[in-house]
Amino acid sequence: MFRSNPPSVAISAACFTLLPFFVFAENELDKQSSQLQANENSMEIIEVYAQKRKQKINDVTVAVSVLEGEDIARQQLKDTTQLSAFVPNLKITNNAGEGTPPAFNIRGVGMIDYNTSTISPIAIYSDGVVSGSANNLSVNLFDLEHVEVLRGPQGSLFGRNTTGGAILLRSKQPDKEFAGYINASVAQHDTLSLAAAVNVPISESTAIRLAMSHQDYNFSTDNQMAGQPDGGLKQTNVRLMVKSELDDLTITSKFHAEDWSGKPKPIASLGMRQVDGSGNCQASQLGSSLCADNFGNQIDDSDFWHVNADTADRKHDTDSWGASVKFEWQLNDDMLLTSTSGYRSLERFHSWDSDGPGNFIEGTMGTDNTLFSQELSLAVDFGDNHLVSGLFYVDEDIQQNNSFDLFRDFRPVPGFEAVAAQYIYDNQLENSSFAVYSQLEHRLNDVFTVTAGMRYTDETTKYHVNADKDTVAFGFEVDKWNEKGQVKDDEFSGKLALNQKLNEHSSVYYSYSRGYKSGGYNAGYATSQAQAIASEYAPEKLDAYEIGAYLQFWQRNARLHLAAFYYDYKDQQVFVNQTQGIAVDHVLKNAGDSTIYGLESELVLTPSHDWQLRLNVGYLPKANMGEFNQNGVVVADNRLPFASKWNVSGAILHEMIVMERELTAQLSFDFQSDFYFDQEENPYVEQTDFVVINGHISYELNQALTLTLWAKNLTNTEYSELRFNSIAALGAVTELKAEARQLGIEASYRF
Fold first, then answer.
1. Which of 166, 448, 680, 703 has its CA 20 to 30 A from that of 386?
2. What domains are there in the chain, each with its CATH number?
C-alpha cells in the first residue's frame, strides 16, 4: 500500500497554502493595485452562477469551487462521484456499488444511506433542474462548460433540502458556429470510451447541440471464484439541446437519455476470525490468509484486489430519460423573468451480494422514479439593488420493488432453517415540496454589499409501505405489514451576508445561513412491522457561520480562496448501522445536536504562461454528531461518517512546445486522512489515510488531432469505497474495493 505521513503532508500543505495570504495580503493588495491593469490577462476571470446569475467569483458570498469542462475531460472524470478529489472537504463514494444511490458529503454533512428513497442534503442541479432523490445523484460528466460546487447550506436561492451544499452542472450551450469533436479512448480493465458532440446552427436565431458518451468497462476487482464475473458496466448517455435567441426571449430546450447495464462490482467478505482459532484478527490483517469468516471462507493470497464472490446471478440495469425547457424573457433593461420546467423518469434494477461466496445476505433494489419540477423567478435591478424572487415546486414519485434475502443457505439445514427469511417490499412514496424565496443584494458603497435572503418551504412525504415474508416454517406470508402515513413540515430558511471589496479582484465575505431539510420516511430494508412503523424521521436545521475571502495578488498570477466555518446542527439526520442479535438494522434517525467546524483553502499559482500549480486543503478538526438514545437506537457522541480530518489535493500543469506542437503534462494527487464508514468508530470499518496520484500527457499532432496518455491511481494505492460491519452475522467485514491503477490512451479529433 502507498503510505504517507498524514500530519506532515497536511501541515506542510496548509502552511504552503496559507503563507501567501499572510505574506502578501495586506501589503501586496495595495502595492500592486497600480499593476493590475497591465496584467489584466495574466489570469482568467472566473465567473459563476452560484447566486443564480453570472457574476465574478469575488462578488459572491458563498464558498464555491469551479471545475472547467476542459479540466474535467483532461482528468478523465466519468461522473459526479469522481469530483471529490478536486474540491476541499468534499467526499463522494459509491458506497453500495456503482449504479446505486451514492453518498455525497460536504464538510461532514451528508447521507450514507444506500436505499432508493433517500433525499440527500446535497442536491445536483443540471442546467437548473433539481436532481431529486439520491437515485439521481450519479450524473455522467461530458460536454460541460463547467461544474460549480457550492459548500454550505443554500438557504435562499436553491431549492430543496440543501443543508450540505449544491452542485451545479452547466452543459455546453448551442452557439452559432458549426463545430464538434470526437474523443476515443482505450484503457486497462477492458475499458473502451467514446465521447462526441456536434454544434449546428439552423437559423440566425437557433442552434442545436448533440452530445453523447459511451463507456464499456470492467472493474479492477479480480473475482477468484470459479465461473464468477469481475463485474463491469456499459453506459450510454445522450443529450440534445436546442437554443433560440429571439429579440427579448431566449428559449433553451434539453432532452437527455441514459442506458446502463452490466454486472455489479463483486464485494470482498473479509473474515475477521483467526484461522488457527486463537481469536479475532487485527483490523490490519483483514483480507489476509490469516483470517476467515464464521463459515471458513477466506482469500487465499495477499493480492488486495482478489475477492471470492458468487455474483453470476447479480445484475444492473438503468433506463432513464428527461426533458426540460427554460424561458428567459427580458421584460426591459432591468427585469428578467425566467421559467424552468423539468421532467425525469428513471427505472433501475440492481441486485447485490454482501456475503462473498455464500448465500447469507443478498438482495435487490428496484425503483421506478419520476420527478417534475417547476421554477419561476423574477430578477430586478434598481439603483444599487439586485432582487431575485421566485416560486419553486417539485413532485417526485418513488416506487420501490426491493428484496432482502437472509441466510438462504440455512434453509435445508435442520435446526437452522428458522433463521432464514426473505422479505419482498412494495413501497410507494410521494415527495412534494413548494417554496417561495427572495434574495436582495444592496450595494452600500464602493466597498460593501449586503445580501439578505429568505425562503419558505412546505414539504410533504406520503408513504405506503408493504412487505411479504417467505420462510421455511410459515411459507409465503402476504402483507406481513402494510402501513400508510405522511410526514409534513414547513420552515423558514435564509441568509444574511456582507461582501467587502479589497480591490477590483479581491474581496472578503461574512455570512450567516440557516439550512433546513425536511423530515420524511426511510423506506429501507425493514425486518419487522415495528421497524417499518418507526421509520419516520424529523426535520433537521443547521445554523452556519462563515467568513471567507477571494484574493488575487502577485500581479494577479496567484489566486487564493479561503473559508472558515462553524456549524450548529439541530436534530441532524444520520444513517445508523444498529446490530441486534445477528441482524444488522439500517435506520435513519435524528442524532441530536451536532457541531462541525473547519477551514478550507484553494490556491492557484501561475508563475508563467506555461506553468500552473493548484493546491486545495480541507481541515475538519471537529465533526461530531450529538448523542441519541431512543427506542433502543443508541448513537454516541462520535465523529460523523465520511468526515476526514484532513483532505489535501493538488496538481501541477506544464505546457511546452515540442517540434512546433503543444505538449501538456499534468500530475495530480488526492490525500484523505482516516475516516469511518459508519457512526460506531469500529476499527474494522475504518479507512486509514491514503494518497491517489493521477496524471496525463497530451500532444497536439496537428490543429485537429490530439493524443493523450493518462493514468489513474498511478501508485496502485489500496483503499475502500465501503466497509460494512457484518461481524455479528458473518464474522466478516463487507468491503467494496476502490479502483486499482489504470493506464489509457485517448485520441481527440476536433472540427
1. 166
2. 6-173+245-267+309-651+674-687+718-742 (2.40.170.20)
- Whether the Cβ atoms of residue 611 and residue 654 lie closer than 8 Å to each other: yes
Bridge partner list, 512 = 496, 545
Task: Report the SS3 class of residue 134.
Answer: helix
Q: Three-state SS for 135?
A: helix
Burial of 543 (0-12, 13-18, 19+ CB in 10 A): middle
Number of other CB atoms surrounding residue 203 within 10 Å: 8
CA distance 704 to 67: 24
Pairing relation of β-strands 361-382 and 268-271?
Answer: unpaired
Nearest residue to 719 (alpha-carbon basis) of 281, 78, 84: 84
Q: Which parts of 472-572 are beta strand (E)? A: 475-503, 506-517, 520-521, 536-537, 540-553, 558-570
pLDDT score of 116? 83
Q: What is the pTM of this model?
A: 0.91
Look over the chain and give the mean of its residue pLDDT values, rounded to a whole number.
89
pLDDT at 6: 42
Residue with cell 435591478: 381
Distance CA 588, CA 523 (A): 10
Distance CA 576, CA 557 (A): 47
Residue 6 grid cell: 498524514
Output the 3-class SS for 282-347: CHHHCCCCCEECCCCCCCCCCCCCEECCCCCCCCEEEEEEEEEEEEEEEEECCEEEEEEEEEEEEE
- Find, among 107, 225, 216, the residue nearest to 162 by Cα: 107
DSSP letters, 607-641, are EETTEEEEEEEEEEEEEEPPPEEETTEEE-S-BPT
Read off the amino acid at residue 335: M
**The three grid cell numbers given for residue 287, joined into one nine-digit string:** 483480507
Q: State whether residue 2 is helix, strand or coil.
A: coil
Q: Kindly tell me if the per-residue pLDDT of 40 is higher than 60.
A: no
Q: Using CA atoms, how far apart are residues 221 and 9, in angstroms rounded to an integer?
A: 29
With cell 440492481, the residue in question is 350
- The continuous run of DSSP H or E covering 70 comes out as helix 69-74
- Inter-residue contact 510 to 560 (CB < 8 Å): no
The residue among 119, 118, 171, 184 whose CA lies nearest residue 140 is: 171
CB 589 within 8 A of CB 612: no
Cβ atoms of 400 and 431 within 8 Å: the answer is no
Report d(CA 33, CA 27) in Å as an integer.
Answer: 10
Q: Which residue has the cell 416560486?
A: 391
**What is the rounded average pLDDT of the residues 73-97?**
90
Output the CA–CA distances (angstroms, integers) from residue 24 to 39, 46, 499, in the order listed: 17, 21, 20
pLDDT single digits (tens) 180-234:
999 999 999 999 999 999 999 999 999 999 999 999 999 999 999 999 999 999 9
Q: How far apart are CA 452 and CA 141, in angstroms?
A: 33
Q: Are strands 686-687 and 675-676 parallel, antiparallel or unpaired?
A: antiparallel
For 553-572, give the DSSP string. ETTTTEEEEEEEEEEEEES-
Question: In degrees, to the nearest 5, what angle opens at C-alpha 701 toward C-alphas 697 and 706?
Answer: 55
Per-residue confidence (pLDDT) for residue 17, from 0 to 100: 39
Residue 33, SS3? Answer: helix
Q: What is the per-residue burial (b if ≥16 Cβ within 10 Å, else e) of 259-272?
A: ebebbbbbbbbbbb
Buried b (16+ CB within 10 A) or exposed e, 292-302: bbbbebbbeee
Cα separation, 111 vs 120, whole angstroms: 6
The secondary structure element, H or E, covering residue 179 is strand 179-187
The residues that bridge with 328 in the sheet, in sequence order, are 250, 338
Identify the residue whose cell numbers are 493470497. Answer: 301
Cβ neighbours around 22 below 10 Å, total: 9
The strands making up 144-151's β-sheet, listed across from edge to edge, are: 63-68, 144-151, 165-171, 122-126, 129-130
pLDDT, one tens digit per residue, over 498-551 is: 999 999 999 999 999 999 999 999 998 888 898 899 889 899 999 999 999 999
